[in-house]
Design brief:
Layout (H helix, E strand, L loop, with lengths): L1 H6 L9 H8 L3 E5 L4 E3 L7 E18 L2 E10 L4 E2 L13 E14 H10 L1 H32 L5
Antiparallel strand pairs: 1-6, 2-6, 3-4, 3-5, 3-6
Helix pairs in contact: 3-4
C-alpha cells in the first residue's frame, strides 16, 4: 500500500497516519525509460518527485573555458526526492534530471502539496523541516564535489 511506502520516505518522516493518507490522495505515478529527461534546469518548477523504483541522475552544466561541462551532482534512489525548487522562489529547477534504467516516479503537483501544508500546520512544518534538512545535506555533498573538482581537475567522480 502506498501509505506504507510513504511512511518510509524521508521527506514524510514524522507525519501522522492521517496526514500520510491525505498525501496519498494527491500523488501520481509516471514511468521513464533509461536516459529519459525528467526535467530540465531552468524550467518552471511545479512538481515534487519521489523515486519509487529505479534511479535518477541529477546534473547541471557549467561553462569552463567556454566549454559546457555536465556534472552529475547526485544520484537519487528509491525513496529519495527531488524537485524541492517547486517550494522555493523563483520556482525554477536548479538541476536537470535523467532516468537511470527504467524508473518509476511518484509525483506531486506543488500546488496540491502546498494546499495540504496550508490545511495542516503540523504537516507543513514537518514537510518543510524535512525538505530543508535534505537539501542542506545535498548542498554539503555538492560542496565536496566542487572541492574535489578544484583539487583534482574536472573529471566528474
Amino acid at each position: 500500500m502506498i501509505v506504507d511506502f510513504f511512511s518510509k520516505v524521508r521527506i514524510f518522516k514524522g507525519l501522522k497516519k492521517n496526514e500520510l493518507n491525505k498525501v496519498a490522495e494527491i500523488y501520481q505515478k509516471t514511468e521513464y525509460a533509461d536516459g529519459a529527461q525528467i526535467l530540465k534546469a531552468g524550467d518552471n518548477a511545479n512538481t515534487l518527485f519521489i523515486v519509487s523504483s529505479g534511479k535518477v541522475k541529477l546534473k547541471f552544466t557549467i561553462a569552463l573555458l567556454n566549454e559546457p561541462i555536465d556534472l552529475t551532482i547526485d544520484i537519487m534512489k528509491q525513496g529519495d526526492f527531488f524537485g524541492w525548487s517547486s517550494f522555493a522562489e523563483p520556482y525554477k529547477y536548479t538541476a536537470s534530471a535523467y532516468a537511470v534504467g527504467n524508473t518509476e516516479l511518484i509525483q506531486f503537483r506543488a500546488e496540491e502539496m502546498k494546499k495540504l501544508c496550508d490545511a495542516s500546520d503540523h504537516l507543513g512544518r514537518i514537510l518543510m523541516n524535512n525538505i530543508t534538512t535534505i537539501v542542506s545535506e545535498r548542498f554539503s555533498r555538492l560542496e565536496g564535489l566542487l572541492k574535489h573538482i578544484v583539487q583534482t581537475g574536472i573529471d566528474n567522480p
